[in-house]
Amino acid sequence: MEPDQSSGHGDGATLLGETSYPLKVTEDVWFGCCSCTYVTRDQRVIVSHLAAHGDEQSKCQHPPMSRSKSQVLGNTQKHKSEKPFKCKLCHKVFAQDSHLRNHTRMHTGEKPFKCKLCPQAFAQNSNLRKHNRMHTGKKPFKCKQCPQAFARNSHLRNHNQMHTGEKPFKCKQCPLAFAQDSYLRNHTRKHTGEKPFKCKLCPQAFAQNSYLRKHNRMHTGEKPFKCKQCPEAF
């Protein structure tokens, strides 16, 4: 007789009930997760998946099972719409405990995910992964219309608007519209007069960070733009 493969999965194994037979891949039954939309035919995989949710698995004592994949997905979507995890510091609620923990760091300022190559730290692991691409130069998001590639999907979306001509960010005070939200924010400061970028060495302040960087060179004497035909720099 084959050994019971349900052991070694921790508490997750109990979520499918006590079994005296090996967990296996089934041909006609789908198993779903209560905490997300994951479904599989493999009993071993769903046990490991449920255990990986950690604290969240306590609400999934009876994972959905059905011969119909769509029925299982419908059940997981129903659970996903439930938001039992409430923030104690504001009114927000979440479907998963991990989402609440991520949110709570916004209140506490905790940044447990530290970069190994620089002093930066982040509240979420996903933000650390994005940051790491700056060090590695990895650009997995490739434009389908030109050779450009980007470290972040949001940068690719912004770039694609250059190809389509789409300008979804409209100024509320004039007819101008922009391809990127950051362009609209910079433009809006012309209307409001806001100058959030302040020089640390003099009273000057600027509407855009690029203007502050140029201004700082006046203090430092830096001249990064060198003429290729003579020794002059600017």
Secondary-structure map:
Blueprint: E1 30-32, E2 39-40, H1 43-52, E3 65-66, H2 69-81, E4 85-86, E5 93-94, H3 97-108, E6 113-114, E7 121-122, H4 125-136, E8 141-142, E9 149-150, H5 153-164, E10 169-170, E11 177-178, H6 181-192, E12 197-198, E13 205-206, H7 209-220
Antiparallel strand pairs: 1-2, 1-3, 4-5, 6-7, 8-9, 10-11, 12-13
Low-confidence stretches: 1-24, 55-59
Average the pLDDT over all residues and give the rounded result: 76
* Discrete helix count: 7
Separation of termini? Answer: 81 Å
CA-based gyration radius: 26 Å
Bin the helical content.
25-40%
What's the shape?
elongated
* Main β-sheet, spatial strand arrangement: 2-1-3
| Oligomerization status of the protein chains | single chain
Question: Which structural class do you get from the secondary structure elements?
Answer: alpha+beta
Q: How much of the polypeptide forms β-strand, as a percent range?
A: 5-15%
Q: So, CATH architecture of one domain?
A: 2-Layer Sandwich
State the CATH class of one domain.
Alpha Beta
Number of strands: 13
